[in-house]
Amino acid sequence: MIAKVVISSENEDFLKKIWNLSGQEITLCDQCGICSGSCPMVSEMDITPSQMMRMVQLGQDEVLESKVMWLCASCFTCTVRCPRGLDLSKVAEALRQVKLRHAIDHIDIKAIPKDELTILPQIALVSACRKFTG
Amino acid sequence: MKIGVYVCHCGGNISEVVDVEKVRSFAETQPNVILARDYSHMCSEMGQQLVLDDIRKNNLDRVVIAACSPQFHEKTFMSTVESANLSPYVFEMANIREQCAWPHFDTPEVATEKAKDLVNVAIAKVTLDEALKKKIMPIGKRVLVIGGGIAGIQASLDLGDAGFKVYLVEKSPSIGGKMAQLSRTFPTEDCAACILSPKMADVPANPNIELHTYTEIEDIKGYLGNYEVTVVKKPRYVDVEKCTACDNCTEVCPVVVPNEFEEGLTSRKAIYLPSPIAVPHAYVLDDKACLGRFPLACNKCYEVCEPGAIDSDQKSEKISFTVDTIIVATGYDIFDAREKKVYGIGNSKNVITALDMERMIVHASEGNPLKPTGKRIAFIQCVGSRDEQVGNEYCSRICCMYATKLSQLLKRSDPKRDVYVFYTDLRAYGKGFEEYYKRAQRTGVKFIRGRVAELIEDSQTKKLTLKVEDTLTRQIIESTFDLVVLSVGLVPNEGTNKIASMLKLAKSPDGFLQEAHPKFRPVDTLSDGVFIAGCVQGPKDIPDTVAQASGAAARAIRLMNKGEYDIAPIIAFVHEDLCDGCGLCIDQCPLGAIIPSKVVSVNEAICRGCGSCIGSCPRDALDLHCYTNDQMLAEVKAALVGKKDGETRILAFADDMTAYRLADNVGTAKMSYSTDVRIIRVPSGSRITPKLMLQAFELGADGILLGESEAKSSPFPHSVATIKNNVSKVRDILKEENIEPERVRYAEFVTVMLGGFVNQINNLSDFAKKSSPISDQQRKTLLKNLESRLQAIITKRKQWLKIQMKYSLTNSGR
N or C: which end of chain B has fewer CB within 10 A? Predict the structure, then answer.
């Protein structure tokens, strides 16, 4: 089933956010797809790098639910080949930052029993929180 | 001196706002004005008659008309004045409609005051006007066409047919250019060689065309009507007249080298016919490949040549001639795909360029294929185009359609072939192109939207696997092909650089030559009498090239046909008593119009009257007719004389091409702006020297705005740099005297930026009002400051010239 997608002026905010964070002129992407063809990780991805760029262009923050930016190996192959001179790894990094800033706790510290808390090394708790929430 | 002033009502347009009677009576009181009249429509026949009668009866020798903008009726009144046997240049207009009545309609009193000022400015200028005449220059009917591709051929034939003498110079041994190599032309699929060869044959048949093949331009000097050209004809070692193209020499020649015409897919001998349709149809001896003429190493060709056409004593020959105009049609090179390493051309034997494919198709259709194409063929688009990684931002325009052509020719000749075209965007913009694309789709060619990322050759089978995203389905395709064709883009021709620097032609950012105006002068250049045609200006297909070539020929004919041309006397000149030959001005002129000598002089045929050079002279020795230093100062004085205590005055120097017209457009739109501004028309903002700006401040100006055309559409693209330089000099001096440097500004305008103009004026006026007023003491010291700086420049320059003379770094006698 093909779902209808609404693109409203609010979508612009997401585009601007990624634009500012990455420093890349996202709208310059002309969707040639050379990034996807070049990507060594593309076979593991749910959407292709060029699709990631398209969704950011349209301001669709659903892109944050994809795996693409987590699978990006930052190998820069797309960056050196992009005919418009865009740095896709910076865009992926921006998406990771936005996702991490949502600060979703993967560990509910309150739920950990007190006796276990006392034996857990403090650094383990800190790193567990940092890793997933930034 | 007898000046007549006429104030126009413009049928109410002016008189409903401006008090015409006040302006008229003001004008009457000015020195040298013997009469001042007002009339409802000065531009009408009656109005013009009024002026004519006054010139005759009252012996007027100067005329000022206060009416609309000069862009509407300057020409009208100039011819009125001319018909009364006065010079058309002893006439000025005061623009009291677009600059007073319309923008200041809500403040009629101020508008009237401003109108008085503008009339005063016009009177000040007309008082110092010189009775100049239009300069008539003779011009002949000789044209140099550089490049013998289809553009050069078309231009030469048009000019030759019209009775003009054409020198067609081509560096390779045959004319025909790249088109001669093509298989068929899109979208009509005419055989390229078949339609081109009759045109090529027409060239030597035309009595007006002098064809020089195997010839390179060595030097071009001069200007419109007098370009001195030196060419070098390379030795061909074959007498073109005697050679019968019998092919005996080729048969015996033992040297085998790659054939350039076949893109190296076949070989040729050291003595060869450049192409099957070569014109002139004669053999050439390749000096580098031949076993040797000195000492005679082989001599086989000489022995078999029955007509005795081979002449091993031929020397390169220098030929000089003079022409009146030049058409540059040096064409393009194809992008060197080796730069795009990822596609592996040169390493993989089954990766070829589209031009290779053109030759392969020609030979296949003749029944002797050059190499097997295999069953599966892929075209990769945008190789070297639209790619910042190789530095080419532009679209090469023809690759989409030639790939559409080649792919369907391949598919149709063998429907069992699989032909794929991998494209970025498919651009079928021309006449019949979309239909042709549809035909290819119907033939069964697969078009896949995606830029090929990788191409990997199998070391055993030599087959090629390419990897690409189908961006429409978001699938990654990895597929194997027998042959991959790179649709290479077009790049500027290597040889053009030399010609561009000889003729002082500008390049656009893509590296191709820049036309004089992107819309209205597409085949002109900013060098008078030099035109461009074909791909030297940018990638284009054959019909566009031919249209441009005919256009260039017509533009050249337009200049030459009358046998004379006139130039406006607005050109720079030198006050010989002031010039000391220091030569600081010489590099300031991008056209090279200033001739260095003990006292410099200006080549009147080259100078276009921008005035950029004037500010570079530390001794005020340079000047510009119609806008002389004295006139400019008088205008500034007149514009500021009406300033009352507590008032602010902004001077806007507006270039004739854009800023002045923009001010007119603002007026026409009845957009109001600060009434503090007085607009003075100049050929270019670069005419305004630092000295004049400082003089304006001394005389009471509170701010100065230099309005200039955007460099890309300006007749003087260099002027913005000069303006920046002049403005920064003035700002430095203002800073030293504790005056806000922001009081001097410049802006690049286009004629539709109405709001931008209003903002610039209002901002500057507000800024001047907010800042603390400039004291009389400050105003007086400005010029002294400049004077000491100029003295320093003169001293330094003298020292430098001495060093130059001592070590003879210069060969001029300065």
Answer: N
**Residue among A33, A43, A81 minimizing CB distance to B389:** A81
Residues A54, A70: Cα–Cα separation, whole Å: 17
How many H-runs (helices) and E-runs (strands) does chain A carry? Answer: 8, 0
A22 and B CB contact within 8 Å: no
What whole-number distance in Å separates Cα of residue B417 and Cα of residue B373?
9
A38: number of Cβ within 10 Å: 26
Q: In terms of CA atoms, which chain B residue is nearest residue A44?
A: B476
CA nearest to B650, candidates B577, B557, B573, B743: B743
Decide if B225 contacts B140 (C-beta within 8 A): yes
Q: How far is A71 from chain B (nearest CA, A)?
A: 16
Q: Do A37 and B424 touch (CB under 8 A)?
A: no
Q: Note the pTM of the prediction, 2 decimals.
A: 0.80
Report the SS3 class of residue B345: strand
| Contact call for residues B786 and B694 (beta carbons, < 8 A) | yes
- Closest-CA residue to B662 (of B747, B737, B595, B735): B747
- Tell me the C-alpha distance between B341 and B383, whole Å: 11
Which pLDDT does position B581 carry in this prediction?
A: 87
Q: Is B391 on the interface with A (CB under 8 A)?
A: no
- pLDDT of A103 above 90: no
DSSP state of B715: S
Q: Does pLDDT of B812 surpass 60?
A: no
> In degrees rounded to 5, what are phi and psi of residue B777?
-60, -45
CA distance, residue B465 to nearest chain A CA (Å): 12
Distances (CA, A) of A41 to A36, A44, A71: 9, 6, 7
Note the residue count of chain A.
134
Distance, CA of B356 to CA of B354 (rounded, Å): 5
ipTM of the complex: 0.82
3-state helix, strand, coil in chain A (%, to 5): 60, 0, 40
Any B CB within 8 A of A25 CB: no
Q: What is the per-residue pLDDT across B450-485, written as a single tens digit (0 to 9) for each?
A: 999 999 999 999 999 999 999 999 999 999 999 999
Mutate which of B427, B447, B448, B471 to disrupt the A interface (most A C-beta within 10 Å)? B471
Q: How far apart are the C-alpha atoms of B324 and B341, rounded to whole Å?
A: 46
Residues of B with CB below 8 A from A33's CB? Answer: 449-451, 453, 468-471
Q: Give the count of Cβ contacts less than 8 A between chain A and B.
A: 69
Cα distance between residue B577 and residue B565, in whole Å: 31
**Segment (H or E) for B145:** strand B142-146
A75 interfaces chain B, CB cutoff of 8 Å: no
pLDDT tens digits for B542-566?
999 999 999 999 999 999 999 998 8
DSSP class of A88: H
Residue B277 structure tokens: 């349709």
Neighbours of B668 (CB within 10 A): 15
Best of A32, A48, A50 to disrupt the B interface by mutation (most B CBs within 10 Å)? A32
Distances (CA, A) of B736 to B663, B767, B792: 33, 19, 17
How far apart are the C-alpha atoms of B82 and B139, rounded to whole Å?
A: 24
Tell me, yes or no, if B425 comes closer than 8 A to chain A by beta carbon. yes
